[in-house]
Design a protein that fits this description.
single chain, alpha/beta, 5 strands, 52% helix, elongated
Length: 229
């Protein structure tokens, strides 16, 4: 264990940018699976009813409607053409549940989830989980002059909500940049090229990505350094 800790410290010393995954890395997988996602399933009907006339929800409903019509893989029937909330809300609830069952990562679903979580964080219904040792590491890395960024399958909005409303208080200030799957999947080399470009093209070997992805999924995708935790 001591040797592994020394190796990790040496890797950190050699890089300029540390990029963190979230689920299974900074944050317990159980928080995502047992709190965030169940909250959406349990509260979506009430949320839609309470926010139906807001522009934000109108935009979310329009995006979901387009997604269902474009993607047969959503696994649901087409949404009703009726604009009545009494008719459309139950159909939307079923649509979202089917997308979540399929582990869909489409932007329309991510946006709605993010808006629901935003409300939940603000009213205290949810508090973001972050491991104790992550907070200590963020403090040390920032003090050492490292640039800290996030790359997660969760939307940028969801990332910022989690860190700004964490169980350790507001941690958002530690991070300079956030990336989600809008840049591509974490197993695709092109995703990392896009991120490096957004970070003003640092040498790949100067970037360390800490993630819970298995090594086989990451093998050969880029020249970045990976730590699988």
């Amino acid at each position: 264990m001591k040797r592994r800790q020394e190796d990790f410290a040496n890797l950190v010393n050699e890089v300029d940018i540390i990029m963190l995954d979230i689920e299974g890395t900074t944050t317990s997988i159980s928080f995502v699976k047992e709190e965030l996602f169940p909250y959406v399933r349990q509260e979506i009907s009430n949320y839609l009813k309470e926010t139906w006339d807001t522009q934000l929800t109108k935009d979310d409903v329009a995006a979901l409607t387009r997604q269902v019509s474009e993607d047969a893989r959503a696994g649901v029937e087409p949404l009703p053409t009726s604009h009545s909330p009494e008719v459309l809300i139950p159909a939307l609830v079923a649509t979202v549940a089917a997308m979540m069952d399929a582990d869909s990562k489409v932007p329309a679903l991510k946006a709605l989830q993010g808006h629901m979580w935003h409300r939940a964080y603000l009213n205290g219904a949810i508090t973001g989980h972050v491991y104790n040792d992550v907070v200590e590491a963020l403090q040390q890395w920032k003090k050492a002059g490292k640039r800290l960024v996030v790359y997660s399958s969760g939307s940028v909005q969801a990332q910022k909500l989690l860190f700004s409303h964490s169980c350790h208080g507001d941690l958002l200030h530690y991070f300079s940049d956030h990336f989600d799957t809008s840049v591509g999947a974490k197993v695709e080399a092109g995703s990392y090229r896009t991120i490096l470009q957004a970070l003003h093209s640092p040498p790949p070997e100067k970037v360390l990505f800490i993630t819970d992805l298995v090594k086989g999924e990451l093998g050969g995708v880029t020249n970045l350094t990976f730590i699988v935790c």
